[in-house]
Every structure is written in C-alpha cells, then in structure tokens.
C-alpha cells in the first residue's frame, strides 16, 4: 500500500484464538499527527487534559472506529478520519474519547499496559491497541501482555452507561471549546441503525460504542441546548483539511487526488496533495516542484520540509534529502519522527556516527518506530559495535511482538555488552519479557 510504504509505520502483533494473526499498523507521519494535535487542542483543554500529553495516533484500518487504551493516547482509524466531513465532527469523536479518560472508565479495565519506556512495554501497548483496532471480541492473549482475559473483557467494549456519560461530558467539552455540537449528532448519524445488524456486519465503532435510539435522542437534545455557543475556528478547520488531505492523498489513486487536490480551498494543501500524487507516480521533478510551492506558501513549515525530504530519499537523492531533513530538524528539533528521518538520510549518505546521534534522539523521544531501531542496528553494525546492533534488533522484535526472536538477539547482546551497563540492562528487560512469553505458551 502506498501510504504504508511512504509513511513511517510501527507494526503491531495480534494474537487470535481461532483466526490467523492480523497485523495492525500505526500510520506515523509528523504532519498528520501535528495536524490532529491542533484540531484536538481546544477540546482537550476543555476536558482538563490540556496540560497533559495526549497523543492522537492513526491506525491503518479503513473501518470506522476510535478508542482509548490508556490515559495518554487516543487512537482513530484512518477510515473514520476520512469519513469525517469537517473539523467539528472530528472534534466530537475526540471529545467523546477524551471523556472516557476523564470519567475514569479506563480505571475499571482489569489490565495494566505499563507506561514503560522500553521496547517490551511499548510492544505490549501496541499489541493491545491492535486488538482494539480489530474490533473482534474473541481476540485474546495479547502475547506481550500475557493477559488471560479476552481483549473484549479487558477494555474495549464500553457499557451503555459509560457511553451516555461520555456523550454528556463530550458535549460539554465541545461547547466549552466553541466547537459545533452538531458535529456529534452528525457522527452518530453515520452509525444509526447499526444496533439491528449482526455483530459481523457492524462497524467496529458500533461494537465498541453501543448506540441506542435513546442515546441518539439525548445527544440531539444536548446539541440543541448548546446551540449558538459555537464559534468559527480557522485553525481547527485548516489543520483538519491538512490531515485529511494528506491521508487521502496517500490512500487514494494519484489520478483521484489530482482531480480533487484543491477541494480544501487552501493553496498550500493543494500543492502538498499534488506532490504526494506525483511522488506516487514516480515523477520526482513535478513532486519536488509541487512541495516547493507549498513551502513558498508556508515558509518555515517543518512538515512540508519533511515531506520534501521523504520524496527525495525515496527517489534515491540521498544528499538532497539529508539537506531537506536538516532544515526540518532546525525548525522542529524535538519532533521524533523528523529526527529519525534525518538519521536515516545521514545513514544513506555514509555519515554513520552522525546518523546514530539523531536516531538515538528520535528513539529517546518516541520509541515506537521500529524503522529507527532497524536503522540503528545497521549503523552500529557498520561501526563494528555488534553488541549494540544485537540490542536494538532485539528491541525491534520485542516491539513487534516477536518475543522469541527478540530473546535470541537479547541474549547475544547480553553476552557482548558490559555487565551492568545501560545497554546490558535494556537487554535484560527484553530477555525477561521473552522468558515470560515462553512460559505462558
């Protein structure tokens, strides 16, 4: 799939009882994640979550769903994001999920996802997210978690009481944020009638967020009560169009995108979408020209600069890509995805020591991108540091749920690295997770 090929991804393992494992994928793109952060900001602030770090992450799944598994992340399926027609609808979804966090609904889930900064802990959380994303009540195990209960019993089906409470809280957050409360009504309109369908035919959102006629009527009344409080939010509208525009540009055929590139009404988004379409057609000249138009419209935008870097690196213009990423890093020095991409470009140009520096910074800030670990392993191997190459390979496998393979490489790293060192301790963490998983089989 072109989007997965182009965007940064993090693989997540799904363990099932009666069906083959299904891989779920996080779509990691700095532009889309920043855009969703901007759309969510007023709603999260109204919910009292503005001072905390709540990330909005996109799951590569064309079905319609959104969910939370902890207090720090809201997951939204790519299919649901593309289904949203305006910023108010997306904000309604985010407000509802934020309400599940603030109302304490997660505290009643008998599972601890370990908010660990380790590969094994991250792998556990991503495996749990994959189970939720699938929408399958019979999914069990979550290998990295070692959970005995099914995923459905653990966390991903809300009760009707929880849904009603989240609706009411979410509507208050929308009103306080100045967002249009009719956005929530519009979202519910999408799922009306789902409750009469068999479970196999329902959208995951309807399975995880039970909808009733009474609930729909209550939301309608709440929207009427909050009518007139909404105000125009040009920032949310722009970033919604940018997130949806970029996502659709990589999930749709280039011809489809080029025919609709200007539908957002923003010249820079039009140019960005054209760049994505031309890139998929392997037309580097027109792709670079288009992204340069976007940069001319928004000079200093690190996310457009990052897109230029990705176009160049995938066209094997490694030094030009490194130059573009270097500019993006100066403009957004704390963005883990941009740091990782710069490290990848430096590695491609033979600047191995510098590559490790930026790859490590990326990993320290956000350890969920297995491509960063893959690149670090390559860089350490080139420098002859076999112990660290084995360690980061072990962590990459742990992140992906491949704990047996992770254990093999962690044992090798443990034998090669100085006992008691930071790297040695990281290897012990992966070894312990692999041993627990082996015992639970």
What does this structure look like?
GO terms for molecular function: metal ion binding; metalloendopeptidase activity. Keywords: Hydrolase, Metal-binding, Metalloprotease, Protease, Signal, Zinc. This is Peptidase M48. The chain has 441 residues and is mainly alpha-helical. The chain has a domain at 2-225: Metalloproteases ("zincins"), catalytic domain (Zincin-like). It is built from 22 helices and five strands. The protein has a five-stranded mixed sheet with strand order 1-2-3-5-4. A hairpin with a 4-residue loop joins strand 4 (66-68) and strand 5. Helix 4 packs across helix 8 and helix 15 runs parallel beside helix 17 (336-348). It starts with a helix and ends with a helix.
What would the keywords be for this entry?
Zincin-like; 441 residues; disordered N terminus; 22 helices; 5-stranded mixed β-sheet; mainly alpha
- Shape annotation: globular
The portion of residues assigned to helices is: 55-70%
Q: Strand portion, in percent?
A: 5-15%
Catalogue the unreliable spans. 1-23, 110-117, 135-156
Largest sheet, spatial ordering of strands: 1-2-3-5-4
Oligomer: single chain
Main sheet makeup: 5 strands, mixed
CATH homology superfamily name of the domain at 2-225: Metalloproteases ("zincins"), catalytic domain
